[in-house]
Design goal:
The protein has helices spanning 31-43, 48-71; strands at 2-3, 14-28, 76-88, 91-103. The protein is an alpha+beta fold and 104 residues long. It has a single domain, classed as 2-Layer Sandwich (Translation Initiation Factor IF3), CATH 3.30.110.70. It is elongated.
Length: 104
């Protein structure tokens, strides 16, 4: 599966547009990691617990989007984007979306 954030795949032609595909997840950290993150927030610097959580969330959302594209018979997903929304303190939704296509 080819995944790109452009509206084309270099060296390929789009045969058919299959439609929008998306994958999402809502993640939170455990209370212990939230406490650690709170201390880091007060001290300043990177909050590694949340960095890790969001990186993991992006991978889950991306994989779910790919699974939906594969179910449609897509060869690629173009115009891939990510969106993040705060749901509540310490929890975030990550959405991955793009256009599933077949290639010539």
């Amino acid at each position: 599966m080819i995944i790109v954030n452009t509206d084309f795949v270099t060296g390929k032609q789009i045969k058919e547009t299959l439609g929008l595909v998306r994958g999402n997840t809502i993640q939170t950290k455990s209370i212990g990691k939230d406490i650690k993150a709170g201390f880091r927030h007060m001290a300043g610097g990177e909050i590694k617990e949340y960095t890790e959580m969001l990186a993991e969330s992006r991978e889950i959302a991306l994989q779910r989007m790919i699974e939906k594209a594969e179910a449609l018979g897509a060869d690629a997903v173009i115009n891939v984007r990510f969106m993040t929304s705060a749901i509540m303190g310490g929890a975030a939704e990550i959405l991955a979306y793009g256009t599933a296509v077949t290639l010539k």
